[in-house]
Specification:
The chain has 361 residues and is of the alpha/beta class. It has helices spanning 9-16, 38-45, 59-69, 82-93, 107-114, 134-141, 162-171, 190-193, 228-235, 245-256, 261-282, 309-317, 344-360; strands at residues 24-25, 76-79, 97-102, 118-123, 146-150, 176-180, 204-209, 222-226, 289-291, 298-303, 321-322, 324-325, 336-340. It has 13 helices and 13 strands. Helix 3 packs parallel to helix 10 (245-256).
């Protein structure tokens, strides 16, 4: 049973005696604007593709991604979501000792557990609002052969600059750094932060997700970019037809129109910047939540009263809104919850419910 994730809509719907569609999911980190309007039409127009096998290595998709980022497509692999790569990389690299910058996404740990690989966490401190300590990270990286860093990080929303990451990569040349940029498209100046084009480094792997920014998690699409030597190691474990036909059709369509991508990104960024500001302003007088500064659209908060995260989520859930209980993140506790913002009416409804719950206590 998979227990490390949020977004269990079916469980809440069953508890509330309603349909899945009645639940508002504010636990999963997806673009609040939804996918571009053309995506669903592309799926409908390409339904016949399911009658044939797709490209075995998603070459067209890889070339589209590479062209958009200005890199050689031979330094790119396309997979069934970045999660597939996360579980494959440690085995493909022969990792023996993995360091995970946390608190963070549980699949980095679970990938190590799957392959019986030793791992440890470098945990950012609540007192530092979960901004990673670079000295600690560098010291511990020296003892590891593989390092996972989510940038920006889930669930804290913290962000490391390109300069800090390059410093680590250059300093520890015998350590492979896996930088997960799944949420980076939501951040202003993302291209100035991204390491996707840094395929000249022999100890760097970058993961890029299409699922979050384009809100197509059910299609399962993601990319890995790295130096050719690392790509070759990983491709030994690559399964043919890892990306299904409809996913390839959608991603190929997106990269067939590169002029639309950045405007879509920027429209999303502008939207979440404003909505986050409005949401936090509406709760500025609520002392029962201490907010962690986030560079993206999901917000981590510490509950400062007696209520636990589980009880808090249950009370919000009674109003058919699902939020993320962060008690199972290593480095957090049952004082932490995470909210993934949506459009203003829903955000306002959540803000009102938060006030009700904390005032009730």
């Amino acid at each position: 049973m998979i227990l490390g994730h949020g977004g269990n809509i079916k469980e809440l719907a069953k508890t509330m005696g309603c349909s899945d569609s009645d639940i508002i999911d504010m636990s999963s980190n997806l673009n609040p604007l939804g996918p571009p309007e053309t995506i669903e039409k592309v799926i409908c127009d390409n339904l016949m593709d399911i009658r044939s096998l797709p490209e075995p290595d998603a070459e067209t998709m890889r070339k589209g991604f590479a062209g958009f980022h200005g890199i050689d497509h031979n330094t790119v692999a396309a997979g069934n979501g970045t999660t597939w790569f996360i579980y494959t990389i440690p085995k493909a690299l022969g990792s023996k000792k993995v360091l995970i910058a946390g608190p963070t996404y549980s699949d980095y740990k679970d990938a190590c557990l799957m392959h019986n690989i030793t791992f440890t966490h470098c945990l950012a401190k609540a007192s530092e609002l979960f901004v990673p300590d670079m000295d600690d990270l560098s010291r511990m990286a020296q003892e590891a052969d593989t390092v996972f860093i989510c940038n920006p990080n889930n669930p804290t929303g913290s962000l490391l600059s390109r300069e800090k990451l390059v410093y680590l990569i250059q300093k520890h040349k015998d350590t492979i750094f896996i930088i997960d940029e799944s949420y980076l498209p939501f951040v202003d100046q993302a291209r100035e932060i991204s390491l996707v084009s840094y395929t000249g480094y022999e100890n760097l792997i970058v993961l890029s997700s299409m699922s979050k920014i384009f809100r197509i998690p059910g299609l399962r699409t993601g990319f890995l970019s790295a130096a050719r030597g690392l790509i070759e190691q990983i491709m030994v474990y690559y399964q043919p037809w890892s990306v299904n036909a409809l996913a390839q059709a959608v991603i190929n369509h997106i990269f067939d129109h590169p002029e639309r991508i950045e405007p879509f990104y920027q429209r999303t960024r502008d939207f979440i910047t404003l909505e986050k500001q409005v949401f936090l302003e509406s709760l500025k007088d609520i002392k029962a939540l201490q907010w962690v500064d986030s560079c993206t659209y999901f917000l981590l908060a510490r509950l400062t009263g007696d209520i636990t995260s589980t009880a808090f989520c249950r009370r919000i859930g009674q109003h058919k809104i699902l939020i993320r209980d962060c008690a199972n993140f290593i480095g957090l506790s049952d004082q932490y919850v995470r909210f993934s913002l949506k459009k203003r009416p829903i955000n306002a409804r959540l803000a009102d419910l938060i006030k009700q719950v904390v005032n009730h206590d």
